[in-house]
Amino acid sequence: MKSAATAHEVARLAKVSQSAVSRSFTPGASVSEATRAKVMAAASALGYRPNALARSLITRRSGIVALVMSYLENQFYPLVIERLSQQLQQRGLHVLMFIGDESEASSVIDEILQYQVDGIVMASTTLSPELARHCASAGVPIVLFNRVPDIEGLTHSSTSSVTSDNHRGGRLVADLLLQRGFRRIAYLAGLENSSTNLQRELGFRQALAEAGITPCARAVGNYDFGQAQQATRELFTGSASRADLRPEAVFVANDHMAIAAMDVLRTELGLKVPQDVSVVGFDDVPQAAWGAYRLTTVVQDVNDMVAATVELLDEQMNRDPLPRHVVVPCRLALRDSVGHPANQPSTQPASRQVRPRLKPNVR
Question: Range of 312's domain?
Fold first, then answer.
């Protein structure tokens, strides 16, 4: 069997240094196009392919970023995986995905560290102070995606975070519903202790309170499709099934649950959306724009959130700065799931986007 070509042989054929061969195969490395072309031609002629494992032994870098998620059922996160993988690959890094527990990633952190990963992105899951310190002592930076750390427990850790402006998003929903004339407004919560749910509900309640209103009902769906269906039944059955008592509108903490809620409202309870009940979600997943739903929702800018995550990882892995917490602006996408109370006619177009004049807030 013919032995594999080596970088030394490529360098000799291309008449360049061996370091030039290495740089030619490293995305983003400094090398002229002329040199890269000679190296690639020589590599093709010899059938050479770089050995990533051998390179990691020399550089002490694996080129792997671990992505920890608790579930993929929510349509928002497949988008995150796609965009994150693409942007990391452009920097010569690759994603190794782990599925952890919804509430904490302790079950997979030890396994992750065995792979000598260069960084960790944690999405849709939380991180305890103990685990944060464990990763920091191992020199592995962590970026929380769509979550914020427990500020008291993680102040001195190397944990950074990227979120959309969840608090502002909650306020936008309340402002929209109040402007349309709704007064009996319910809230369908996500995971009770998650930073996303806490901030969305806080902004929502504060804006309602400023208008002298409190939510007329509340149920918990835990960001789960089936639980959101049951929570919707709780909100709209019993005494709340009476037209004069039931919620006129409901803010649902994410689109995944909002779609479940709309299905129950229309197919089980015989209510029309938005003629009988208006529904607002959060995320703007692709399914929110489908003709069967046309869901009004708060848009989380996946591209900006992923770009900020990759930049924070690069900082943490290469320049070792202090932790940063990036907040990306959000906006409303108005579609057909929000109308007006039954006694008030519609005066606004059904489909447009409301873009508040916000700049990214980095703190």
Answer: 64-165+302-328
- Quickly count: other Cβ atoms within 10 Å of residue 43's Cβ: 21
The span from the CA of 123 to the CA of 102, in Å, is 10
Q: Are 135 and 158 within 8 A, CB to CB?
A: yes
Do 173 and 101 reside in the same domain of the chain? Answer: no
Residue 164: helix, strand or coil by DSSP?
A: strand
Q: What is the mean pLDDT of residues 313-328?
A: 85
Asked whether residue 192 falls in the same domain as residue 294, the answer is: yes
Tell me the backbone φ, ψ of residue 279, rounded to 5 degrees.
-130, 135
Instruction: Answer yes or no: do 121 and 250 share one domain.
Output: no
Query: Torsion angle, CA of 305/310/313/319, rounded to 10 degrees?
Result: -120
What is the reported pTM? Answer: 0.78
> Using one digit for the tens of pLDDT, what is the confidence trace for 20-30?
887 887 766 78
Shared domain for 37 and 175, answered yes or no, is: no
pLDDT one-digit tens code per residue, 85-138: 999 988 888 888 888 765 555 667 777 777 778 888 988 776 666 667 677 777
Q: Which amino acid is at 248?
A: E
User: What b/e string do you get for 50-75 counting C-beta neighbours within 10 Å, with b at 16 or more?
Assistant: eeeeebeeeeebbbbbbbbbbeeebb
Residue type at position 309: T
> From CA 47, how far away is CA 82, in angstroms rounded?
31
Decide the pairing of beta strands 352-354 and 331-334.
antiparallel
Q: Please give the Cα distance from 183 to 70 (Å, whole number).
A: 36
Q: Measured between alpha carbons, how far is 88 from 343 in angstroms, rounded to an integer?
A: 52
Q: How many domains does the chain have?
A: 3
In 10 A of CB 348, how many CB atoms? 12
CB count, 10 Å around CB of 307? Answer: 17
